[in-house]
Specification:
single chain; mainly alpha; de novo design (two linked rop proteins); elongated
């Protein structure tokens, strides 16, 4: 039987999927963020961690079930996407409730983070430290300049009070940005899955074709 005629198709390769790698990175960073900045007594702590974990687990489960059920893969991938959307709102709430600025799409730090394509938590943490130091050094310089000179650095003047950038403000924006990337990748994956299912069907269709082919041999 040719590979394309297999009833159970290749499945379970989720560890190589960019959406899984990014979701796992977001999960690792969310655990560290919540342990440091969200009270263990708060329901938000558990909800954020569980939402991040759900993103990872459902991508993996969906990929594993794809061999016999494309519908299940689409459904579970959609659950993963919804969980990460919930997590995005939690980070946005954190920024708003602490009177921090949310990075806009054209923010230079946001773009730098995306371009770096980090895949490990320690890489991101080191980057946050570096940005925190860089920003505060520049803000210190700006404090000695005139108001007119400060307008030359719009990205920096958005930080709280324009005197000192908060580490947790940068950390929350960083993980929110990476969560947005994971959601974007999952949106693309879902679109690809839907298109493939529309054109090629799933397990039931493959089983029917295989039975029909075998009957025609006799």
């Amino acid at each position: 039987m040719n590979k394309k005629d297999n009833i159970i198709v290749d499945h379970g390769g989720y560890r190589k999927m960019r959406s899984f790698v990014m979701a796992q990175l977001v999960y690792d960073l969310t655990v560290k963020f919540c342990d440091k900045y969200i009270s263990f007594k708060s329901r938000t702590h558990d909800q954020m961690v569980q939402a991040a974990r759900s993103g990872v687990q459902n991508i993996a489960e969906g990929s594993q079930t794809s061999g016999t059920s494309k519908k299940s893969e689409i459904r579970l991938t959609d659950v993963a996407r919804a969980s990460l959307e919930e997590l995005k709102l939690d980070y946005e709430d954190f920024l708003r409730q602490n009177h921090f600025q949310k990075w806009e799409r054209n923010n230079q730090f946001r773009q730098e983070l995306v371009d770096n394509r980090y895949t490990k938590a320690n890489e991101v943490i080191n980057w946050v430290h570096e940005i925190h130091t860089r920003v505060n050094c520049k803000l210190n310089e700006l404090s000695k300049q005139s108001e007119q000179e400060k307008t030359s650095f719009p990205e920096l003047t958005k930080f709280t009070s324009c005197k000192k950038a908060s580490y947790k403000e940068i950390a929350a924006n960083t993980i929110l940005t990476l969560t947005n990337v994971a959601c974007y990748l999952l949106d693309r994956h879902l679109a690809s899955l839907a298109e493939d299912f529309e054109h090629n069907g799933g397990f039931t269709e493959r089983l029917y074709k295989s039975r029909s082919k075998n009957r025609n041999k006799f």
